Amino acid sequence: MAKVLAVVALIGVLLGAPLLAAIAIAGAAVPAVAVSTRGACGTAPASGQWRPPFVQAYTVSSRGIGWSYHPVFKRWNFHAGQDLSTLPGPGPIVAANTGRVIRAGWDTTGYGNLVDLQHSGGIQTRYAHLATIDPHIVPGATVHAGQRLGVEGSTGASTGNHLHFEVSIRGTRVDPISFMKEHHAPLDGRAVEAPRGEPDTDMIARPAAPPGEGGAGPLPRPGQPRRNSLHNSALPIPADIHALYVAAGNKYGIPWALLAGVGMEETAHGRITGASSAGAQGIMQFMPATWARWGTDGDGDSKADITNPADSIYSAANYLVHSGATDGATGIRRALFAYNHADWYVNDALYYATEYTPGTRAPAPSPPDCGSPPSSAHQEPAQK
């Protein structure tokens, strides 16, 4: 092995850093060996212009920048960044500094879902293997330090949830560990507070909705416990379903994202079909007895069909409003609890709602226990 490493090092000298950077490919391994988790259960304030790309505790993998054996491609290659993993499970990924989005989407070379940001001074950062990219993160958009980009995942050539984080200066990749330390944002595993000026109350301020984007008003901040949202990321909303959420939100005066949160929690916007084991039906999962009272004609065909997406979404809005969803944060929580009598359900729906709300950042779950990740076992929602 020593001879192999020596040869690799010699090749590196002969080829030079720029060419090595040109053949760099995304890392894939799950962080198996933590280099540093010191203070992982503590919290550090954000300082200066730079900050770690997480808001919760994380581990720093032994797989950093340099040559290493790729567990997916089964060959030695140049690993162009640093692998990091959130604790106790996959969490939000945030911008390490203010910048402009120059790329956001799927990469075919192994990075999976990635976001590239351009910062001042010729500096770029890359965030790869994301489970999802937030809808408002698009090329040309400006983001601030700490703004949410997406959710940690395992897309592309990856064997488990982690973030592949890269830093380059004028096209040359540099060691993220050294760079972040030099810029007063050490990657030491500690959770980092929200950027100054962001809300620290029980409310997430919702900006004025664009025309046709549903009701106004703030959403309550999701809390604990959570269940499904710890393991299932918010999925893209089909265009026809999104239009129904918006239209129903407009009619009943509630944020369309609240309906989207319920739709994601119940059936992933219709991806889960058929009746539940408890007998709930339709995209928003109504029990027949509840439907008999609250079922609404959403598409104007003069009948309320429990399996019709338009009718189901409009009926959900109707039910939420009658349960208090227009009575502020407390009313929204009360309405969600009435929809499915479980605290974890309320927090799951609110978490997903913040995922779909433009300009907001869903909080990471607080990590007082840095032990084993929570179980991913599915539990049938309570009867409505």
Automatic annotation (TrEMBL):
| Record Pfam families | Peptidase_M23, SLT_2
Identify the InterPro entries for this entry: Cell_wall_metabolism_enzyme, Dup_hybrid_motif, Lysozyme-like_dom_sf, M23ase_b-sheet_dom, SLT_2
- Molecular functions (GO terms): metalloendopeptidase activity
Q: Annotated region Disordered: where?
A: 191-233, 357-384
Q: Where is the M23ase beta-sheet core domain?
A: 78-176
List membrane-spanning regions: none
Domain Transglycosylase SLT spans what residues? 275-335
Q: What is this protein's record name?
A: Peptidase M23
